[in-house]
Amino acid sequence: MVYATNLGYPRIGPKRELKKALEAYWRGRATSAELLETARTLRKGNWELQHQLDLQHIPSNDFSLYDHVLDTIAMVGAVPRRYRWKGDRVDLDTYFAMARGVQSGVTGSEAVPAMDMTKWFDTNYHYIVPEFEPDQAFKLASTKAVDEFLEAKSLGIHTRPVLLGPVSFLLLGKSASVEFSPLTLLGQLLPVYAEILRQLAAAGANWVQLDEPCLVLDQGPRERQAYIVAYQQLGAVSPDLHILLATYFGDLGDNLETACKLNIDALHVDLLRAPGQLEPVLANLPEHLTLSLGVVDGRNVWRNDLSQALAQIKSAMQQLGSERIMVGPSCSLLFSPIDLDQETKLDEELRSWLAFARQKLEEIMLLTKAANQGVSSVQDSFEASRKAIAARRASSRIHNQVVKQRVADISPALLSRSTPHAERKRLQQEKLKLPLLPTTTIGSFPQTREVRKMRATFKKGAINGQEYEAFLKEEIRKTVRFQEDIGLDVLVHGEFERTDMVEYFGTQLEGFAFTTFGWVQSYGSRCVRPPIIYGDVSRPHPMTVEWAQYAQSLTDKPMKGMLTGPVTILQWSFVRDDQPRSETCNQIALAIRDEVADLERAGIQIIQIDEPAIREGLPLRQNGRQAYLTWAVNAFRLAASGVADTTQIHSHMCYSEINDIIESVGAFDADVIFIEASRSKMELLDAFRQYQYPNDIGPGVYDIHSPRVPSEDEVFGLLQRALGVLRSDQVWVNPDCGLKTRRWEEVEPSLTAMVAAARRVRASITAD
Ligand code: GLN
Ligand code: ZN
C-alpha cells in the first residue's frame, strides 16, 4: 500500500486567528493562556482535518507561535546571551524577545534588539537566524515537539513530529562573534536531538520527520560528512522510531549519493521543483529506504495534474513496489493559502484552476487512492482535473496578443538610462538641492487600526468612495506635515491606500486574480495575500499618479512616487506555470515602465521602485544564478530607464545578504538604493570594501521589524561605520524598510533620532 503523507500545514488559521491572538498578547490585551488556547484550537483543527481525510502520516510540531527555526533555537537552548535567559525551559517572554527584541522601560527591563531574520530559502517566509558562539552549549530547553505529539495523541490522532534537522539548523545559523563554522558544533548539538528523539519514541511516536532542506544546496565535503555523522547517531537512537528525512525546494543533485548513505528510513524528494530527479533517485535508492514523493505543489496554487502525478507515482511503484512509497506535497503546505472553499468571490472558471492547502490534501488522498485501488476508483476526480487543466490552457482570459508582441519587441535601448550616473546625479542635484546625507524613509507609514478600520468600512460599503478618499487624503496630509516637522529631506505619502505593496498593483493590472482569505505567513504574525498571476499582464490605467500628485501638492520638498518593481511583483505572487518566469516578469516591467512615465509626466521628480525580493528569487544553487540575475536586472532596468536624466530613480531591497549579488545591485543603475543594514550592524557594507559601489546608497540605520526605538547615538555610530566604507557624498540616511507595521509612538522618536544623528554627522563633516 502507498501511504498518504503531509509535511506541514499552515499555522496561521483560516481566518488568521493566530495573528490576531499573537498581536493581542503582544499588546497586553490577552493573556498567555488565551494565546495558547487559540494555538491549541488551531492545531486541533489542522489535525482533525487531516485525520478525517485519512492521511496516514500527519505532521505535528509543524505549528509554531512565530517560526519553526526559532522553535529549534528554543528546543536546543541556543538563546543568545543578551536575552539573559536562565533556567530550564525557554519561556514565552524569552521566545518573543528573541523574535521581536525588548523595548526599554516596558517591563522595567533594558532594551535588547531582536535576532536577525532572513528569508527561508527562496520563499517569502522569514526565519529567525540562529546565532552560535564557539563555546556554544546546547541543552534540551523546550519539549514542544513532545508536548504537541501528546496533545494530538490525546485527541486520538497519531502524528509524525517534524523537526528541523541538525545539519540544516547549524548551516542556517551564523556565528555570533568571531568567524567560525557553526558545523563544528554538531558534536555538541546531536545529544540534544538524540534526547528529543528518545522522548518522542517514549511518548509513542514511530516516525519523525527531519527536514534537511540544505541538502538541495551546493554542499561541500564537510557538510556532506556532517549529514552522515548526524544520521549515524540519530538513526541509532531508537529501533522503534523511524526517520523520514525531508528535502525540498530543489534537486538533490550531487548530494543524492550522500542522502542515500544516511542511516534513515525514508527520504522525501521534491518532484515539482525537480521532476528530473525521480529517475536518478529511483536508480540509487538503497533497498531499505522508503521514498516519499512530493508530487503536489506546496509552493503554488494550481490544481494538480493528477494524471501526470500518478504517472510519477506509478513509475516509482514499478521499481520499488507499493510498500516503500509515500505520496505527499513537494514541501510543507505552509506556503499555500489555506482553503479555496472560503473564496466565494472568485469566479467559477478561475476557481476550477486552483487548489489551496486543504484541496492539496484532497489531491494527495486522490492520488494515493488511485495508486492503491486503480484510477477507476476515483475516475470522476481525474476526469475533472483533466478538464480543468485543458480549459485553463485554452482560456481566452490568459492570452493577450498585444502584450506578447510588446515583450517580443523589447530592445537593448529600452534597458538603459541615456547618461551615466555621475552626470545624472549632478543634474538631479541642481534641481533637488539636497543636503549631504539626505534623510528619507522607505515609503510606508503606520497602517494604524484606524486606517485598517476605514478600509474595512469602505469595503463593506458603509462609506462611499469619496468619503474614503477624503480620509486617505487627510492621512497623507498629516503624514506630510509630520515629515516636515521631523525635518526629513525627501518625503513620501505613506502608502495608506495600499494593503500590501504587491496586492495594490496587482488589483489594478490585468492578468491578476485576488483571494479574500488566501493569506500566507511572511514572518511571525505578519501575513501576505499573494495575488495569482494567471494571464498576460497589462496596465489598463495609471495606478499611483493621483496620490503622488496630491501628496506633492502639499509640500515644497521632493515627494517620491512609490512603485513596486517587476521582480518583486513576480516573486511575491503565485505565478503561472505555463510560461517562463522571465516572460511574465517582462510583462510586468512594461506595465511599471508606463507608470513611471506617467509619474514623471505628472511632475514627480523622484520615483522609487522597490525590489525587496530580488535576492530571494536567486536560484538556490550556483548554476542558474547568472541567468536569473541577468533577466531580473534587465526587468528592473526595463521598468526604470524610460525617464529623463533629471528624474531620480530610487530602489530598495530589504535583506542584508547582498554580498553575492552586489554587482547586480550595481547593475540596477538606480540613482539611489536603500538596503537593510542595521540588524547586521552595517556588516553588509563589508561587501563595499572590495566593490566600489558607484551610485548613491542608504544603508538602513534602524530595524523596523521590532518596536524598539533606536537612540541618536546608536544611529550616529552606524552612520560613522557606513562612512568608513562609503563616500560621504554618496550616503543617504533612512530606516531599514517601510514603517507600516510600526506605531506612530515608535516612528516619531525613531525618525527624530535618525534626523538628529544625520545632522550631527553632517556638522562633523562640514567642520572637518
Ligand atoms: N515601499 C514599501 C514600504 O515602505 C517597501 C516595503 C518593502 O520593502 N518590503 O512599505
Ligand atoms: Zn523593505
Proportion in β-strands: 5-15%
| Biggest pleated-sheet summary | 8 strands, parallel
- What number of domains? 2
**Poorly predicted regions:** none
Describe this structure in words.
By secondary structure, the chain is of the alpha/beta class. It folds into 2 domains: 3-53 and 142-336 and 346-394, TIM Barrel, CATH 3.20.20.210; 420-767, TIM Barrel. 42% of the residues lie in helices and 12% in strands. The strands form 6 sheets. The protein has an 8-stranded parallel sheet. Helix 23 (625-640) links the parallel strand 18 (606-610) and strand 19 (648-653). It is globular, with a radius of gyration of 26 Å. The protein binds glutamine (GLN) and zinc ion. Glutamine binds at residues 442-444, 495, 501, 562, 610, 612, 652, 654, 737-738, 740.
